[in-house]
Amino acid sequence: MTYRRAAIPALVGGLLLTALLWWAGASTQALRLPGSSGVFGGQGAVDLDHWLAPWSYDPPPGVQLGTEPGPGGGAGVTGARYLSLWGTAMQIRYGALLAFFVPGALFLLRRLPPVRGRTTAALLALWAWAPVAGTLAVTVSAPWLIAATGHGSYRFLPQLAGVIASGQQLLVLLGLLTAAVTVAVARITAQGAGPLPRQAVPARAARLSATAGTGVVALSLVVLSYQPVAAALQTAALGGGLLSEPGELLREWLVLGAWAAPAGAPDGDWLLYRCPDLVLLVVVWCALRRLPALLTRVTVPAMAVGAVCATVLGLLAGRLTRMPLDARIPGRGLLQLAAGLGSGVPAALTCGLLAGAAAAVTLRAATGDPRGTRTPAPAPAPDSAPDPDPVPPRPQDPPRAAG
């Protein structure tokens, strides 16, 4: 799929996702009206406001912006400069969202075009890329948002980790709609493009590659997510200043989950709550197993981006598996059950990049091909091929009559 054909759906998807998030963020004022609790319920309105607030130009009620001295040296009032700084942070967030989503979607559509046999894979990859682009956009704009509170130098890295972890639920929901529209537009622009190449990957090499990539993800999910290890990582300390207390930020970008040894709880319940982790690993392995055969060209960047999308999809599948388990807790509504959607995306980005690189290197070593793939052998030519321009035979003269 050429860049020209892939650029149109990528740009349409980026603009649609940005517009949907802006519309959702502008709706936060409606949730703060007195009548909203009667429609969504008191807790439901609070939960929805928590989902939408990271994409709103209006600061949430619980956020205290920086203050400036009042007239005559009186009590401090919210400064216009801090309000302007908050608005600047949101402008950067939306601009970064578009800047991260469009190139990623363009790359995915080039390497995984939504044509016959690849449509579902392209849809899932674009869906997973929406939370990744949103996470990067939130990370880029977070310093301006923290500075708008007036005390950005205080525990900067823990504040940064808290900002990065917000706003993911909305990205998951709107990302699915954006992916569907992007794929639909891409199928239209791909018409007449001709057959796209497929790589022939040996089954054994594909399994080894998927196992190597899944092992990297399992390192984070099993080792780093063990509570004593995660606690040691979270309490890690560096020097003083802005870079002190990096533990929460490291945990946000390295730890995919959280688990501990069974202590007092029935073993059956403990094993049941490990099922979402198992689902994550199965999804990642199956995706990495099929990824090389679906790509139009197997490269390290393509495998890395594909592994990131596979890890995010595994996280979403694990969260959806956990929702019925948490539903047994009394008082849990749908919004409370879905609060975990999108969590762990920063760690999925880190682990996915490493997993994709490991899978690509293993694939190259297993196939013995420096490109990591083997192209199918051409079909043998037939012994006798018909003449492309046959000469018609001359008609014979009719026999003459005797005498």
Automatic annotation (TrEMBL):
Residues 377-403 have a biased composition (Pro residues). Keywords: Membrane, Transmembrane, Transmembrane helix. Residues 366-403 are annotated as: Disordered. Signal peptide: none annotated. It comes from the Bacteria. Residues 366-376 have a biased composition (Low complexity). The keyword Transmembrane applies. The chain crosses the membrane at residues 92-109, 121-146, 166-186, 206-226, 271-288, 300-317, 337-361. This is Uncharacterized protein. It comes from Kitasatospora indigofera. The lineage of its organism: Bacteria, Bacillati, Actinomycetota, Actinomycetes, Kitasatosporales.
